[in-house]
Write a structure and sequence with these properties.
Elements: H1 7-12, H2 27-30, E1 51-52, E2 59-60, H3 64-69, H4 109-131, H5 153-179, H6 181-205, H7 209-224, H8 226-229, H9 233-249, H10 252-281, E3 287-292, E4 298-303, H11 305-343, H12 355-364, H13 368-394, H14 399-433, H15 437-451, H16 453-459, H17 462-488, H18 499-517, H19 519-534, H20 536-542, H21 544-553, H22 555-565
Antiparallel strand pairs: 1-2, 3-4
Helix pairs in contact: 4-10, 4-11, 4-13, 5-17, 5-18, 6-7, 6-9, 6-17, 9-19, 9-21, 10-11, 11-12, 11-13, 11-14, 11-19, 13-14, 14-15, 14-19, 17-18, 19-20, 20-21, 21-22
Length: 567
Amino acid sequence: MSHYYDGNNYGNAQPAYAHNPPYGYDAQQSGYDGPQPGYAPPSQPPPPQNYQQFGSDQYQQQPQQQQHAYGYPPPPPPAPPAEMDATGYSSGGFKGAKQFNRTPKFRDLWAALLFLAHFALFVVMAALFIRALPSSAFKNSGNLKFTKDFYSWPTMIMWLCVLLVSIVFSVIYLGILQMFTGQMLVISFWFSVIAMIGTGIYYLAAKIWFAGGIMLIFGVLYALMWFSWRHRIPFSKVVLETVCHITRKFPSTMVVSLAFLIVQTAYSAMWSLALAGSFKYMEKYQSCSTHVDRNGRQYQSCSNVKEILAWVYMVFSFYWTSSVILNVLHTTICGTFATFYFFDGAPGGYPTNHVTLSSLKRSLTNSFGSICFGSLIVAIIQTIRSLLRALRNQEGDNIAVQLIGCCIDCILGCIEGIVEFFNKYAYVEIAIYGKPFVHAARDTWTLIKDRGVDALINDCLIGNVLQMGSFLCAAVVALVAWLYITITKPEYNNTGSYTAPIIIAAFVIAMSMFMVLLKCIDSGAATTFVCLAEDPEVMARNNPRLFALVRESYPRVVQGVHANDYY
């Protein structure tokens, strides 16, 4: 793999353009105060030489003939400071260099307190429910082959193997991705085509004609799109190389991903045991009554409102907590990548010796409320969709209920996708500037609408590579789980009734673990796009290769800054 970054380029990089550092960092500490004496400009290509001295009203401007000699447009004059609102940050416009409060503040504190209160209630409920499980559920019979209980230690060993194989495969895949970036982009595209056509053929063989035809049509159309998508590969390759380079420079991003994977796994295990114990614990709240039908026959009906409410709360808690865990990880990685983007090559170096740890600290303190706020919105939508699906399952014979429920579920699914999309980039703004969630979401909308960032996102093929990796990881882990239960032959699976559920569970768990461990790639790409739109001059200095591709293929992202923001 070849990439632009080398020791000489980093050593010659100029400090970041006149741009405020991420919140919580001191400009003077980080060397973010303009050029230093004797700091040589890069040899190829040279950046614009005009910038504003940080903390001063004076600026210097180089002769414009020197700028045109290198093919760059004349440098824009420095923008006046943006107006500040009562909360201490810009009100949302992207005019000139943004001015945000660099003193960390706790944002959306009410959401953080609400989340902690909700989680404390879940812990109490989980303790009561788990204690209701039979005490023999975790006892080992001592015989690996004739294990009677699903909760026995041999079965736990199987799930441990699933976790270990998922982690090992994810690390190996990341290494292959870094060595063969361009090839993996091409392979992932055709892998998607083969997967869709193969699925369509399987459906046709199973005489599921409609689904098979749809998959074949989409597979053929996707293959034909190669002729219009292949021009995206050079751009996606450079972005992926950039992200992989930063990941190698900060291996702590992988360590943090692994730590959050352990937290997510522990929480999911706790939630699963609590759900299993809730059936036994909530039996005492069941109430039954006897009724007589029109024929004089007696029948009994039972209901358990408290049990239903407990399950709804458990589902909501799972969605909210899982979303908070993943978004804290996402925001932490975004903060690391943003620090690299704005401070790499600065004379004073990075503002801290522990970039990822500092970003994690901000995510768990000052920005935790904003993360909880955004996650709450998604969790509410997901809970409503789950309730709709449960209602449709109960009213399987009612066509009207099925039709209305399907339409509502489809609408909510679209809303959920839109919210998750904006949240992903809003958390980048939160990681950089420490904004409250509402303002971060509003600025994200402005960024995507006015700067053409949506074109960058749509043309980036990194998602295909991650999807292929998650599918391969899930397939390998599912095979390991099948081999384990086939060799050990546990007694609870004598009839084979547990084989399919175990394989499906292993497949889903492995796919989720892969996406968590490689969150650094997805979050890094998102941060790169946002930082590029915020201040492209920094990329022109530190990564001219990627900047040249963006300026050639997506001039709106760069010209919007030069033309609209400064003139």
